[in-house]
Design goal:
The chain is α+β, with helices and mostly antiparallel strands. About 40% of the residues lie in helices and about 15% in strands. The strands form four sheets. Strands 2, 4, 5, 7, 8, 10 and 11 form a seven-stranded mixed β-sheet that branches. A four-stranded antiparallel β-sheet has the order 1-3-9-6, with no helix packed on it. A hairpin with a 6-residue loop joins strand 15 and strand 16. The radius of gyration is 31 Å and the shape is flat. The two termini are about 60 Å apart.
Length: about 725
């Protein structure tokens, strides 16, 4: 969890309930432009979508996997014989970041954004190009997410059989004409051959003014100013994590004994003390250079699309899972991973030659000799970095190597400190075993990514928790000396440090256990699979269960891929829910939600799970969850054209979103509406509410709806 996500979590935990009034939120404002308005047959032109995003909101981009959760910006072009699409829509300078809630990398813009779709012109004439845009905007202030759908028009585009005139053309080397921008604010149009232009320089322009908009180049200062602060904060926090990993690597049996040996070489030779200290500094810097070069190589191999591939594709996640398990078992003593002896001997021979180059090869020899202990830790840092940003592997290795090299330099400068070091012994192997258990626990995260993305259903939340509980318990028992592994020395007594680590491991195990019975475990929300069904239950009595969801004699629609949390029975189709509610004589609880809605998951985990709320949802209401961002295509006979925006609604999510906006005038999630199924007008029983983290307030909302429903039925019966 990076700094931004931690701040988001704390903010959402303590944010007071805000009054909700019916409103239509439009945090994203789109406009269109052309890469060049005049061209000729056979040439390619960029269609440009500029986005202006309200303060404290962000717009999800095109360049991340739709399997992660949030709605990926999509353009659906109206087919035409006048042009052909070239490739897919490309996001310009979107910000990539790991999202622990969705367990994958997302891409988004803040303030401004731009998307480019290249087309190839096939025939002469003057024409416009139309497309439908689907997108999603969210805010970290209160967790609201707003789906968007617009019809866009590009052009007019003038196409001739002959070469396009130089005037007005914008190309890689073209000099744009000086033109006065139209409108109250300066406008900008980025040249097609300059995809690296920062979105901070991209203004919103109307299509007719696109031909006269000046081209602005983004210099280093502008690009730096456009970088989100959270980007730097995330790298700093990851660098700190890597630094702590480097400190942990120092406490392994392969490294710790080498500290006094190496330092004595620099301080006890024929060199003067000053020269010995200088060599020790060069030695430490060499270690940093070697590990940082590893990070650079990894970053280059990943490329710009590497982090997204690592975060969402099954192959790297499964590979990381296997690697982490192998390294974890190695740390536990099942086998030892070593590099070929020939490679180590060659590096050692170079170190023996002396001189400054010899100092570098001494550092290289240390890296090779300590590989069996540092390799798994380095792999962990690189594995986590590969799922973030392209720069993260470099930052990770820099932080790791800085901590790794620091003691060699400091002890060389202050050799008297060596006397305070604890002696090597069995405690070093204990550190190695602890790291082995941690490696095995981290491995499950990668397997969970594959399991969720492909709906295998193997590593459910309960199975995940059971494995973590067992590993934590074994670690605690090991630290207490209840069993020994192959490389352990006999344990005569417990040290205070070992006892405190055992307390920490067993406390973590105790914290996990309630999660098997439905506890939300909010501190681990980013690491655990989402809550759904539970294999464990302590409820011997409690509230009577709701009438089964198939009481109508039919299976709830979409229940093959959608489900409610906490074992709730319910529906995902409003018409079906209305029929069930009429039969059961209950009001309807509508949950306008989304797969990408963070606050929806928080409400389910911390508010719905409360007994006073869950009891009412189980017994007093027929629950229906309407996902506004689900991409499931509905049968053609269920398609319709909305009277609100005159667009055809073909998917489950679009129809649910249209219902929310058209009937209730609200387009953010979560949004909760209580209905009387016998009221054909669809008027709410009480005023709907949105995000409400206060359990008591939410319970009162449900109680008020129930009382209103009973009062209306009593009035009808009295007539």
């Amino acid at each position: 969890m990076n700094i931004r996500q931690l701040f988001k979590f704390l903010l959402l935990c303590w944010l007071p309930a805000l009054p909700v009034a019916a409103q239509i939120l439009t945090p994203t404002h789109l406009s269109t432009a052309l890469g060049r308005p005049i061209t000729k047959v056979g040439q390619e032109v960029d269609l440009i979508v500029n986005a202006r995003i309200d303060d404290k909101w962000h717009l999800y981009a095109t360049d991340f996997s739709e399997d992660v959760g949030p709605v990926v910006f999509a353009l659906k072009f109206v087919p035409s014989a006048a042009y052909a699409l070239v490739g897919k829509p490309q996001s310009v300078k979107s910000h990539h970041q790991m999202d622990e809630v969705f367990k994958g990398e997302v891409a988004f813009w803040e303030k401004t954004g731009q998307i480019r779709q290249r087309i190839k012109v096939l025939r002469p004439g003057t024409f416009t190009i139309k497309a439908d845009a689907d997108y999603q905007s969210c805010t970290d202030v209160d967790g609201r997410c707003v789906p968007g759908n617009e019809s866009l028009t590009f052009g007019p585009l003038q196409v001739s059989d002959s070469a396009a005139p130089a005037t007005g053309a914008v190309g890689p080397s073209a000099t744009p004409p000086a033109a006065k921008p139209e409108g109250p604010a300066p406008t900008a149009l980025v040249a097609p051959a300059a995809p690296a232009v920062s979105p901070a320089t991209v203004g919103t322009v109307d299509a007719p003014a696109a031909a006269t908009a000046p081209v602005q180049a983004a210099g280093p200062a502008v690009a730096a100013a456009a970088m989100p602060v959270a980007d730097a904060g995330g790298l700093w926090s990851f660098g700190l994590l890597a630094f702590l990993s480097g400190l942990a690597a120092l406490l392994t049996p392969c490294v710790f004994p080498m500290v006094p040996m190496t330092v004595s070489f620099f301080t006890g030779g024929q060199d003067s003390r000053g020269r010995g200290i200088l060599k020790a500094v060069v030695y430490g810097l060499s270690i940093i250079v070697i590990y940082t070069l590893i990070g650079v190589v990894v970053a280059r191999l990943l490329g710009e699309d590497g982090p997204n591939f690592m975060a969402t594709h099954w192959l790297p996640n499964l590979l990381f899972f296997v690697v982490f398990v192998v390294f974890g078992l190695s740390f536990l003593g099942l086998f030892e991973i070593t590099l070929p002896s020939g490679l180590v001997n060659k590096a050692d021979a170079q170190a023996d030659k002396g001189g400054w180059l010899g100092v570098f090869f001494m550092a290289f020899t240390l890296v090779l000799v300590s590989f069996s202990c540092t390799g798994p830790i380095v792999a962990t840092v690189l594995g986590l970095a590969a799922r973030g940003q392209t720069l993260a592997p470099v930052v990770g290795m820099l932080g790791f190597s800085l901590a790794f090299a620091l003691p060699f330099t400091l002890f060389a400068i202050f050799p008297s400190w060596l006397k305070s070091l604890p002696r090597s012994g069995g405690w070093l192997n204990t550190v190695k075993v602890v790291l082995g258990f941690v490696e095995l626990m981290l491995a499950l995260k990668f397997l969970s990514m594959v399991d969720l993305a492909y709906h295998w259903g193997i590593l459910t939340r309960d199975v995940y928790l059971v494995l973590w509980i067992v590993l934590s318990a074994l670690l605690g028992l090991y630290l207490l000396g209840k069993f020994r592994l192959s490389h352990d020395s006999p344990l005569d007594h417990l040290s205070v440090g070992r006892l405190l680590l055992a307390v920490l491991a067993l406390s973590f195990m105790t914290y996990l256990v309630p999660g098997l019975f439905g506890a939300p475990l909010p501190l681990l929300a980013g690491y655990l699979p989402p809550q759904s069904r539970h294999d464990f239950s302590l409820a011997a009595g409690g509230p009577a269960p709701v009438q089964p969801a198939n009481a109508l004699g039919e299976t709830p629609r979409f229940s093959d891929f959608l489900e409610l949390p906490h074992g709730l029975q319910g529906y995902f189709d409003l018409q079906q829910a209305v029929r069930a509610a009429k039969r059961q004589h209950k009001p309807i609880f509508i949950d306008f939600t989304g797969h990408a809605c963070v606050n929806c998951r928080k409400m389910e985990a911390t508010v719905w799970s409360d007994p006073q709320v869950l009891s009412q949802l189980q017994n007093d209401y027929v629950v229906v969850a309407l996902y506004v961002d689900d991409k499931t295509e509905l049968p053609r006979n269920e398609w319709y054209t909305s009277a609100r925006d005159h667009q055809q609604k073909t998917s489950l999510g679009k129809q649910n979103a249209d219902l929310q906006v058209t009937r209730y005038g609200f387009n953010a999630q979560p949004y909760y509406v209580l209905l009387n199924p016998d009221d054909p007008t669809g008027n709410p029983l009480v005023k709907p509410i949105a995000y409400e983290p206060n359990v008591a307030q939410f319970a009162q909302f449900l109680q008020a709806g129930r009382r209103s429903y009973q009062a209306r039925h009593a009035a009808v019966a009295a007539r």
